[in-house]
Amino acid sequence: MRLDRLLLACLMLLVLGAAAQAAPAGDSPAAAPAAKASEAQPPVKLTPLDEAMKDPNHKTGYVKKAVKMADGPERIYQVFVPLDYTADKKWPVILFLHGAGECGTDGQKVLIQGLPKEITKREGKFEFIVVAPQCERVTISKPPEGEKADPGKPRLKGGWNDTQEQMAMDALKATLGEYACDKDRVYLTGLSMGGYGTWGFAAKYPGQFAAIVPICGGGDPAKADALKTIPTWVWHGADDGTVAPARSRDMVTALLKAGATELRYTEVPKVGHNSWDNTYDGNAVFDWLLRHKVSDLGKQTSAKAVIDAPSWADAPKP
What we know:
Blueprint: H1 2-22, H2 32-39, H3 48-54, E1 61-68, E2 74-81, E3 91-97, H4 114-121, E4 129-132, E5 138-140, E6 156-158, H5 162-178, E7 181-191, H6 193-204, E8 211-215, H7 224-227, E9 232-237, H8 245-258, E10 262-268, H9 276-280, H10 284-290, E11 304-308
Parallel strand pairs: 3-4, 3-7, 7-8, 8-9, 9-10, 10-11
Antiparallel strand pairs: 1-2, 2-4, 5-6
């Protein structure tokens, strides 16, 4: 009997020792609330842009506006107003044209790519007023069954033309009238479908924009004469399989032949269709824009061109 009791006592000691070893120090009912509190996630820190947008009646950050279309309905567009905006100084303005993926009428999808995305990444620290209209729709034609799309052939129908072009220009005009804008420093940029739009708008309104930045789009080389006095910085990905680099190269070649007064072409190596992230990253493009004014258009007489395109073997000499 004594032996049985001894064995039982030893067994209980072994069990208690194993439990003590498995349990972390301080693991007791009293310590449990403290442990749970330590596991709580820290509160999310709001960016300056988030703080500005919290107020439902916010006046800075992304502000939704509406413009009346010629056929009656209103269309939403976005205006980015610098967080430190005051009306006692004149602000430079950028008209931004989005790509096909952001079409719609919600006014929100325009913020997910390109320049608005870069502004959000910078937490709203951006010293331009930005007008971002939204193209309602575009039709993208499909290649014949069994064939791949040819990036050398435009596949878009619609886009930034006709009523959509007028809506964008009306949004720009309304912004220039509503805010303290510097009408001598109005710029134009767009990506993909918006790159096509940038070329088209600039050719149609040659005295409106002090400089343009078309990205991975294409234009009409026959309109190079209308564009040659507008400072232009073209961007394209060297491996773009959606819009071939040839579309930008054709425009660059035509502008050089027309005697463009200021032209830059940057073809980003090993980058596909999304070359806009490269374009808007950093301050190089924005510093370059600010060096130009509408009142200076046509005053420059000597041609100035820079071509940075390592994979363009037969690039023309500037």
